[in-house]
Design brief:
α1 packs across α3 and α2 crosses α3. The two termini are about 40 Å apart. The strands form 3 sheets. Strands 3, 4, 5, 6, 9, 10 and 11 form a 7-stranded mixed beta sheet that branches. The chain is of the alpha/beta class and about 300 residues long. It contains 12 helices and 11 strands. It is elongated, with a radius of gyration of 23 Å.
């Protein structure tokens, strides 16, 4: 089935900008023209594509079609580069939707995204779940802990991200004065990113042999996680890249330096656009080589 490019562009703009009026301004048409294009596209798709609210959001079918529109733009931009066209004269730029884990975004990924002729929309999810965005067709690439390629995708290993269990000296003196015992871990508050974050609990099970459920703070921020540990709010597994300077300065202490946690990360890309995304893939792999441990 073929879709009208102007209708796909209208859908992508509405979902990216959040309103029909904003999409109309960007595409230099009237809001009624945008509404008509969306209606025709919904009739053709046989499903609602836009949840008309403030802001407008996508239905599952709408998200899939919007990603298709973005991938078409990526392929056209890649073709223009191959033909020697000036991308500076092209509008709009190709837009890429990525699913990545917060710790990669907060530590090493961003430099890999610079200098590329595309726009990025990043969705955050735990590395154990980011591949689901690829399976649902809502993103074109993802950083995840799945070595096995998602159907229709290519997967390459990036390296291992090392985490250290850390807390403040005062927290350590209060809860771990007699060492990292089972009793201490059972009562010491831990830090958790969100409900999907199993990193601390998995580490506890590996280190203690027990499925402990200590009191828990939820801090959905990579930098906030480190700061919460530094301030003595709780203990948590922090990326070594962020924890090392604070360990060296004495602002953090390690609970079990001989027991790091390492997460293997992989870059998965929809095969249909893997060629168009080759420059990005090279940049991500190069940056990962500098920041992560070898696979």
């Amino acid at each position: 089935m073929q879709y009208d490019p102007s209708q796909l562009a209208a859908l992508e703009a509405v979902l990216r900008l959040g309103s029909f009026d904003a999409a109309a301004r960007q595409l230099s048409v009237t809001p009624s023209a945008i509404s008509q294009r969306i209606k025709v596209l919904e009739d053709r798709a046989g499903a609602a594509l836009v949840i008309r609210a403030t802001p407008c959001t996508a239905t599952p079918a709408g998200a899939r079609l919007a990603r298709h529109a973005s991938e078409v733009a990526l392929l056209e931009a890649a073709l223009a580069r191959d033909l020697g066209h000036d991308l500076g004269q092209m509008a709009p730029q190709a837009r890429l939707r990525l699913a990545v884990n917060a710790d990669s975004l907060g530590t090493w990924l961003l430099p890999a995204l610079t200098g590329l002729e595309m726009l990025f929309e990043i969705v955050l999810d735990d590395q154990a779940f980011s591949a689901d965005w690829l399976r649902r067709g809502e993103v074109s690439a993802a950083i995840c802990d799945h070595a096995r390629p998602v159907q229709g995708c290519d997967a390459v290993p990036l390296g291992r991200m090392r985490y250290l269990a850390t807390c403040s000296p005062a927290f350590h003196a209060r809860y771990f004065a007699h060492g990292p015992t089972l009793e201490a871990f059972a009562r010491a508050p831990l830090l958790q990113f969100d409900g999907k974050d199993a990193l601390q609990h998995d580490w506890l099970r590996r280190v203690t042999g027990e499925a402990l459920l200590p009191p828990t703070h939820r801090i959905p921020s990579t930098q906030g996680f480190v700061e919460a540990a530094r301030l003595g709010l709780g203990w948590g597994l922090n990326p070594e890249h962020l924890a090392a300077p604070l360990l060296a300065s004495g602002d953090l202490v390690s609970l079990a330096p001989e027991q790091p946690e390492e997460i293997a990360l992989h870059w998965q890309v929809n095969r249909l656009v893997s060629g168009a995304l080759a420059p990005l893939t090279r940049a991500v792999r190069a940056q990962a080589r500098q920041a992560l441990l070898p696979s």
